[in-house]
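Run: sequence + zinc ion -> complex structure.
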Amino acid sequence: MQRKILTIVLGLGLLTCACRQSSNAGKSETQNDTLKYDNAIAPQFNSDSAYAYVKQQVDFGTRVPGSAGHKKCEKYIVDELNRHGADTVILQSAEVTAFNGDSLPITNILAQFNRENNYRVLLAAHYDTRPWADNESSDENRRRPILGANDGASGVGVLLEVARLLAEYTPQIGVDLLFVDAEDYGDASGWDRKDDTWCLGTQYWVGNMPYNQENKPAFGIVLDMVGGLDARFHREYYSNKHARSLVDKVWAAGANAGFADKFINEVGGSLVDDHVFINEAGIPCIDIVECNNAITRSFPPTWHTLNDDMSSIDKRSLLAAGQTVLNVLYGERNFR
Ligand SMILES: [Zn+2]
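>> structure
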């Protein structure tokens, strides 16, 4: 994803948004739901299992659309979802054109649990990895693809562990797990906005969503770079702007699950990621992402470097993200 510079003007916009929200109580499904979850009813997230899912993806090598590693990873995700007993696994394949003219064969993967339940929640993560290590210092290394242990595999690893638990412990709601492609093939050059060069898989998906008005997800949560060493998840600007009550709910769930040190109640940055396009499609959606690292004040130090490998993965970070989304899922009731 691409980082944006948070300006004072944007900060003022946030305040306006926060004020407006309080007059809207009871309107949206995600409003004032902080009392609706119960830690006791959610199964326990297993971070060893999630870690193994991350490692398996990294063992496939780099996972750039069209590559052998990508194909293996796609098949692995589909096989795991079927093995875990998803009601349906929908593959959405297409050919999209990247900003540089590259033609990319992409496949989005959607697994549905409790398919008949019209009250649905969407979780999403990208499984492709970036073809260029932009943040390396040498030209030669900048042209090499990254392994994406954190940037790619971590969100998918958490979602696959969630899938395993969904099969074992039936939630009271419908759950959709979306594995999107070609998030990270965007144009990082220069300072002007090139938002739509990123998240190509999600942009295709929102144009071809398999929903009607009745079964469209009530809200969505994107997980990206959730496995970094000592990761902290600040409130992301666009999430706060477009789905603030949902951020409130998820961050409260994080604190209640024992991770107040990780779910930081401050805006940490703003970025274009899959949640932005899902929001635009009318599904309130937020991003759990490390965007205010203690060292870089931005993304983790391994971001878009050749060091984004298993040595940058922290089981407690995976656990914090995973247990929090589980607590949200299992605390939801069908109140549509
Ligand atoms: Zn990335």
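>> summary
The pocket of zinc ion is lined by residues 1, 130, 151, 184, 304 (CB under 6 Å). The longest strand covers residues 103-113.
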